[in-house]
Amino acid sequence: TSITVGASDPPPIGRGITRVKELLDSGVNVCFGLDNVVDPYNPFGDFDPLKNAWLLSYLGQLNREKDFEALVKMPTYFAARVLRLNGYGLDVGCNADFNVIDAKDLREALRKGAKPKFVVKQGKIILERNTELIWHRSLP
Fold first, then answer.
1. Which of 15, 86, 96, 137 has its C-alpha lying 20 to 30 A from 79's C-alpha?
2. What is the pTM of this model?
3. Environment class of residue 114 by beta-carbon count within 10 Å: exposed (0-12), middle (13-18) or buried (19+)?
4. What sequence ranges are listed for the domain Amidohydrolase (predicted)?
């Protein structure tokens, strides 16, 4: 929201984000959530945590290898810690809420804007995405 508020204000326009990289480097538990969906603050919002992580990577200059893992953990593990959610994670006895992403690593998932192949809630698949990419012919 902070990067969209003030668009009609006279210059200098005050917008931006906090020092995410410095907070992470200092050991602060930084997280983000997704609540603005197709509204005045985020007209393109769609609850996609990877899309928001991708945007934050640019805005916060989070481009180091260790940042990619933090970007994915911010709306998941780090947010669960802030909310004090019990049973969150992929350990025995946890709720088994997770997404299966088709990407070789976190960098590729962020780069491609990978969508979940499966969404699992309490150990049951609640969404399955079947997409097929077909090349019909080669360019000369």
1. 15
2. 0.80
3. middle
4. 11-126
